[in-house]
Amino acid sequence: MDGKTYYIDKTSDTSADTLLAVGFASLLREALRQRHKLGRILLEDRGTHYTIQLPAPITDNDLQGLKPFSLIQPLVTDKQEKKQSEKGQALDGFDYQGQQEISKTYYEKLKKLPPECRTPLARLNKSKYPLLAELEEPHWQLGHYRTISQMKIASSFNELAQRWLLLEELQRDHIHLLLTLFSNPRNDLEAAIITCQKIANEHELVGKTQVTAF
């Protein structure tokens, strides 16, 4: 284990494997950012697995210095807020309904602009098109949250996002678990599950160790 190279086995041979590799790379990027270790992260498809190459290793000292962080926000709607309120909890995250309204207004106004303002090139060079620069664009993640909403998995999605946030300092233990799991080819998933269950039992964490992939 050199702390710089990680391996994500392809266990399903579907896009879920790719999402796992990209998600883990995003987690590593945040850990490196917090420790001021800048550089390029290289993700490669090696056929039976993905490899992730870091510009610098993540050490145990780095883990101890990590502050709790979020990789993705819960989806917030009136319905989801009501569900959380019934549990005596607040829900903070991505304002889905607000972004939907911003998107609707944006495209309505965009249709009224001259044709030259409606091209992809114009959107990339707003400084040359004052009329376009005045419009408020929806958040770039809106498309992702639309998919979550349309698949009717918001509640399950939010539960996982919030469980990660509620770990707080215990995020470090779980990140260490993932670093160990992916440090060698042929990921020892069974050992990782046992370790995860042990952490959950010791700290009385609520929730299943394994969940169905979306």
Description:
The chain has 214 residues and is mainly alpha-helical. The protein folds into two domains: 5-68 and 167-203, no CATH class; 75-149, no CATH class. Helix content is 50%, strand content 8%. The chain is built from ten helices and five strands. It has helices spanning 15-34, 60-64, 78-86, 96-111, 120-124, 130-133, 142-150, 154-166, 171-181, 189-203; strands at residues 5-9, 42-45, 49-53, 75-76, 94-95. A three-stranded antiparallel β-sheet has the order 1-3-2, covered by helices on one side. It has a two-stranded parallel sheet with strand order 4-5. Helix 9 packs antiparallel against helix 10. The longest helix has 20 residues, at 15-34. It is globular. The two termini are 31 Å apart. The mean pLDDT is 93.
- Biggest sheet, in brief? 3 strands, antiparallel
Distance between the termini: 31 Å
Helix run count: 10
Rg, alpha carbons: 21 Å
What spatial form do the alpha-carbon principal axes imply? globular
Whole-number total of structural domains: 2
Low-confidence sequence ranges: none
Mean pLDDT: 93
Listing every helix as H and every strand as E from the N terminus to the C terminus, the arrangement reads EHEEHEHEHHHHHHH
The level of helicity is 40-55%
- The assembly state of the depicted protein chains is single chain
Q: What would you call the structural class?
A: mainly alpha
Major sheet: arrangement of strands: 1-3-2
Number of strands: 5
The share of residues in extended strands comes to 5-15%
